[in-house]
Amino acid sequence: MFHCKQHNLTKKDKDMKDVYDVNHSSVYEELKENGWKKRQIKSICTRAQTLIHNDAYHTDLVIGWDDESLKVDDSKAKDGTSLRLQNFLLRKNNHLKENGGEFDWVYKTSVDVGYHKVLEEIERSGYKKKGLVQFYFKNTEHEQQYQTNTVPGSPNRHGVEFGAVRWGKWQTKFLNGFEITTQYLPTTRNLAKTDGWYDEVKEEKKELAALTDNQFEETS
C-alpha cells in the first residue's frame, strides 16, 4: 500500500469511498521488479485489499471460510467452539441425502482453487450426480471481480478467462453429466449474521458432525 500512497493511486469502492488501488498495473510492476513471482503478487494484492476493506469497514469485517478460519472464528458456542463452525458442519450434514437432504456430496472451496478439485470430489463420491459447490471469496473486491468477470489478468496470454464465466464453461463443457448447484458463501460478518451463520445451534451436540480429517480438506 506504500506504493499506492506514494503515487496517490486510488479508486472508488462499491460505496463510492476513495480507497487505494492495489491492483493498479504499476503495483504489479514494482513487485515484479523486486523479485516477486506472479502467484505471490496476486496473494499480496489480495491480502492488501482485505486489509483495506477491514480498515474502511471495521464494523463489518471480511471473514474467511477456509478450514482454519472456521476453527478459530471468535463466535463462541457454550462449549467454547466456533458457532460458525458448528453451523457449517450442521448445514453440510443436512444438505446430504443420507440425512434427508437433496445432495450426494457437498464441497467447499475458494474460487481461486482450480475447478479440477471439484472433479476430484466427484471421484471421491463415486461419481454421484447431484452435488453442492460452496464457493468463498477472500474479500469484497475479490467477489466483485469474480462476479463481474473483471479479474486482473483475464484473459491470460493463452486466452483463458477467469471469473464466473469460467465456472459456467466448466459446468457445460466438463461437468455437464452432473447436476451441480452453486452457493456463494457470505464474504463479510454482517452478511453471514443475516444468513444465520452466527445463530446459536439448537441441536444437541451429539447430532453435530465431529470435526475429522475426512470432513475438512484445506482448499484455500
Defining key terms:
220 residues; alpha/beta; three-stranded parallel sheet; two-stranded antiparallel ribbon; 9 helices; 5 strands
Structure description:
The protein has helices at residues 2-6, 25-33, 38-56, 67-72, 83-95, 116-124, 140-147, 164-173, 189-194; strands spanning 10-12, 18-20, 105-110, 130-136, 179-184. With 220 residues, it is an alpha/beta fold. It has two domains: 2-56, no CATH class; 67-207, no CATH class. The protein has a three-stranded parallel beta sheet with strand order 3-4-5, covered by helices on one side. Strand 3 (105-110), helix 6 (116-124) and strand 4 form a beta-alpha-beta unit. The two termini are 23 Å apart. The relative contact order is 0.14. Mean pLDDT is 83; it is low at 208-213.
Beta-strand content bin: 5-15%
How are helices and strands ordered from N to C? Answer: HEEHHHHEHEHHEH
What would the average pLDDT be, to the nearest integer? 83
Shape label: globular
Number of alpha- plus pi-helical segments: 9
Relative helix content: 25-40%
Spatial ordering of strands, largest sheet: 3-4-5
Radius of gyration, taken over Cα atoms and rounded to an integer in Å: 19 Å
In total, the number of domains comes to 2
Low-confidence stretches: 208-213
> For the terminal residues, how far apart are their CA atoms?
23 Å
Number of beta strands: 5
Largest sheet: 3 strands, parallel
